[in-house]
Design goal:
Distance between the termini of chain A: 56 Å
Strand content of chain C: 25-35%
Oligomer: heterotrimer
Distance between the termini of chain C: 23 Å
Number of helices of chain C: 4
CATH superfamily of chain C: GHMP Kinase, N-terminal domain
Helix content of chain A: 25-40%
Largest sheet of chain A: 5 strands, mixed
Number of strands of chain A: 9
Radius of gyration of chain C: 17 Å
Number of strands of chain C: 9
CATH class of chain C: Alpha Beta
Strand content of chain A: 25-35%
Chains: A alpha+beta (about 270), B alpha+beta (about 280), C alpha+beta (about 200)
Strand order of the largest sheet of chain A: 1-2-3-5-4
Largest interface: A-B, 46 and 56 residues
Structural class of chain A: alpha+beta
Order of helices and strands of chain A: EEEEHEHEEHEEH
Chain lengths: ~270, ~280, ~200
């Protein structure tokens, strides 16, 4: 590994203590027979959610989201000058940068963006781009930065929601909000808003269905802006998961509206004073 | 000209008008810090974590402990690796990519604070001499850059270190491999409390504490003083307006007061979590 | 203090240079400027001062960056930057031998090189290092062996206008009483350094 001279270096090699844990943890069932998950939720239940906008003073717009133990912060800058001499475009440009904090997962992450993070950056961009009025800021760009502070599953879905809230907070013109939601398909169950354990448990299972689905949903247009799935899923289950996703998104929508509503109220109060 | 235009067009005059009255535009005295909020143990995936808010400035510190071989020169000593990340998320002035000069200097500063204050005895990170020690990766993530990130970083690091609970490691005698017991966790002993306070020099002779980003830009010099309990640990004044020794001594007095305030804040926060 | 010797004008391509030897410690500095500066670094109302520090071995890391920044900010304070708007002054410092009081030697040699280059300065600066050893005694201008056993290392930079403190950089722990003692001791010794500057220019 090439040494990074721009950071404080530690020892050449180090290992996570988790690599040496005694493997006596018994594989528990993801869903018990009466349809209750490990954290006490039913299959279609979302986790508790907290959304707040305007958390970063220096940014044009920002948002913080907590979905269970998943914590994500996002900031939006711009529209501002295009720094790198990229192709000239009369349409505005949107960029996304998705990053896990080094301490956000059970294993330590590196400082540089890895392939998963780059992949998520692109997916995030694709989910948001259809909702943004790009023609409103020609020759300029809007930058979105997403940082996962703690990852407990559904990180991409939560960051779609968070980024769309930050865009709204920044006053960037959009056609609609985008709500992210993800599903885990496990055997014959479709689990809404999976935790990290549910996301990874059945990687080597022999079951017919083991996969996950994430969508970006625009609620007032009733359109899906992005959809991504991985793993082996039967078509019927995929369809079912998608309808469940849309339903879950519609449950999240009022929470987002409420949060935006109160943030606008606060802003108005502040400017009056 | 409205007050807002005046602030943008003639920032120095704007500040002078306030400082003549010994007050700052945000209503603070010259010796007053912004409201400091501390949250300890907020990230459960980290082995120790803390979030510090100093006014708008926000810094999060997460510590990940890993196992490694010690250096042959120091077979009993573990490692502490602090790194400051000034990501493009926290301010429009930072760009993505490898750390810039400021982030590098701040990382080095944090390393010097850890080394000179001796807040963690590196020998307490030893598991088996010459074979296995802990390395604590302390990553300081700036979430909102509104000046005086140094003080926020030092506080976040100290609070996160106080929050560290290391799993117990035993060595299997047959395989000589380490075995981790995650259920038995031991807190890390902290031997001293480094507390930092930063001052900005305005117009070559007015000193005020805890500058905001705007104040940092207008300042003609910056001084950072780190104290550990009743001793000075780091006095860092890289150039800037020359100062009389008495002015520095006044800063020391304020720093020692701040050190007491901070240790009270940490104690209160830890106490409120225990309850 | 250890004996200081300095040679000026050893290098031919730069605008000013100095090779300062302080005891066993030796540093060579070259100054270029005022010259052109990259567009994105240009400052409208003053000169851009840049310092490049080259150590003998190894890639530059964070420690070197901090070192560069201390020297750059110090030089920026001394240089009359407003006299050269939209231009650059580059200072390159090459480590020759580090045997204690290293930062002080670097700053002194940079000041001499700036003088040699004829860059207009607000005032001169002199850096002095002192060490507090385990017994609590203060040693002026320590060598590397003394530094290793010391408890705290303090470097002060004074100007020759009113002998106020331009830069302080300290390592290790000490009381504010000790800090005061070190300040006054270094302040007195800084006059010796200024005297050395004066004699050097007389002999040129």
């Amino acid at each position: 590994m090439p040494t990074d001279t721009r950071r404080i270096g530690g020892p050449e090699e180090s290992f996570s203590p988790l690599a040496y844990t005694l493997t006596d943890s018994i594989k528990t069932l993801m869903v018990s027979s009466n349809g209750i998950r490990n954290d006490g939720r039913k299959c279609e239940d979302l986790r508790k959610m907290f959304i707040k906008t305007g958390v970063i003073s220096q940014a044009r717009g920002s948002a913080y989201i907590e979905q269970g133990e998943t914590k994500i912060i996002c900031s939006v800058y711009g529209p501002r000058e295009v720094v790198r001499k990229e192709e000239f475009s009369m349409k505005g440009q949107l960029t996304c940068e998705f990053k896990y904090a080094t301490f956000s997962c059970s294993y330590r992450r590196q400082h540089q963006q890895d392939s998963e993070e780059k992949d998520f950056s692109v997916q995030l961009l694709e989910a948001l781009e259809p909702a943004v009025c790009l023609h409103k800021f020609p020759k300029a760009q809007v930058n979105i930065f997403v940082e996962v502070l703690q990852n407990d599953g559904s990180a991409l879905a939560a960051s779609i929601t968070c980024a769309s809230m930050a865009l709204a907070d920044a006053g960037i013109e959009v056609y609609d909000l985008v709500i992210g939601c993800s599903m885990k398909i496990h055997e014959d169950k479709v689990l809404t808003d999976p935790t990290i354990n549910e996301e990874y448990d059945s990687q080597n299972s022999k079951q017919l269905n083991h996969g996950s689905l994430t969508i970006g949903f625009m609620p007032s247009l009733n359109q899906i802006s992005a959809i991504t799935s991985k793993g082996e899923i039967q078509i019927d289950f995929l369809k079912r998961a998608m309808t469940d996703c849309v339903e879950a998104c519609q449950k999240i929508y009022p929470a987002m509206q409420q949060s935006l509503h109160s943030s606008i109220k606060d802003k108005l109060n502040a400017s009056e004073r | 000209m409205t007050i807002f235009n005046f602030r943008t067009a003639r920032p120095v005059e704007y500040y002078r008008k306030y400082l003549e009255q010994d007050v700052r535009p945000d209503g603070r005295d010259l010796g007053e810090f912004r409201r400091t909020v501390l949250n300890i143990g907020c990230v459960t995936t980290a082995d120790g974590s803390a979030l510090v808010k100093l006014g708008n400035t926000t810094v999060m510190c997460g510590i990940k402990a890993e196992l490694c071989k010690p250096k042959t020169e120091t077979p009993k000593c573990g490692f502490i690796v602090p790194n400051v990340e000034l990501s493009p998320l926290c301010s429009p002035y930072f760009r993505s990519g490898p750390p810039g000069e400021q982030a590098q200097v701040m990382s080095q500063f944090m390393l010097e604070v850890v080394n000179h204050s001796k807040c963690v005895d590196l020998e307490s990170l030893c598991i088996t001499q010459g074979k296995l020690v802990w390395v604590l990766y302390c990553d300081l993530l700036c979430l909102d850059y509104d000046g005086n990130v140094t003080d926020a970083c030092v506080l976040a690091l100290l609070a996160a270190l106080k929050n560290v609970c290391l799993p117990t490691i035993s060595i299997n005698e047959e395989t000589e491999n380490p075995e981790t017991d995650l259920t038995k966790r031991v807190p890390l002993p902290i031997s001293s409390q480094p507390v930092s306070s930063t001052y900005a020099i305005f117009d070559d002779n007015i000193l005020f504490v805890d500058p905001t980003a705007e104040e940092e830009n207008l300042a003609t010099g910056i001084i950072t003083i780190v104290t550990t309990d009743d001793k000075l640990c780091l006095v860092h004044k890289p150039g800037g307006s020359p100062l009389r020794p008495e002015q520095l001594t006044n800063c020391f007095d304020r720093s020692f007061d701040r050190s007491k305030e901070i240790s009270r804040l940490i104690d209160e926060t830890i106490h409120s979590i225990d309850r | 203090m250890r004996e200081m010797t300095c040679e000026l004008g050893q290098l031919t391509r730069c605008d000013g240079d100095a090779c300062l030897i302080q005891g066993e410690t030796c540093v060579a500095t070259a100054v270029y400027g005022p010259t052109e500066v990259r567009m994105n670094k240009e400052i409208l109302d003053k000169a851009t001062v840049e310092v490049v520090y080259k150590s003998k071995v190894g890639l530059p890391g964070c420690a070197e960056k901090m070192f560069e920044r201390i020297i750059r900010n110090t030089c920026e304070t001394t240089i009359l930057t407003t006299a050269h708007p939209r231009s650059g002054i580059n200072i390159i410092i090459q480590e020759m031998q580090n045997s204690g009081s290293y930062l002080a030697c670097c700053i002194n040699s940079a000041c001499l090189a700036l003088l040699d280059a004829g860059v207009s300065l607000k005032f001169l600066v002199a850096a002095v290092t002192c060490l507090i050893n385990k017994e609590g005694d203060i040693i002026l201008d320590p060598n590397s062996k003394q530094e290793k056993d010391g408890k705290a290392l303090l470097t002060f930079v004074f100007n020759n206008k009113d002998f106020n403190i331009v830069t302080v950089n300290t390592k290790g722990s000490y009381s504010s009483r000790q800090f005061k003692d070190c300040t006054s001791l270094c302040k007195t010794s800084s006059k010796q350094v200024f005297e050395f500057y004066k004699n050097l220019w007389k002999s040129c």
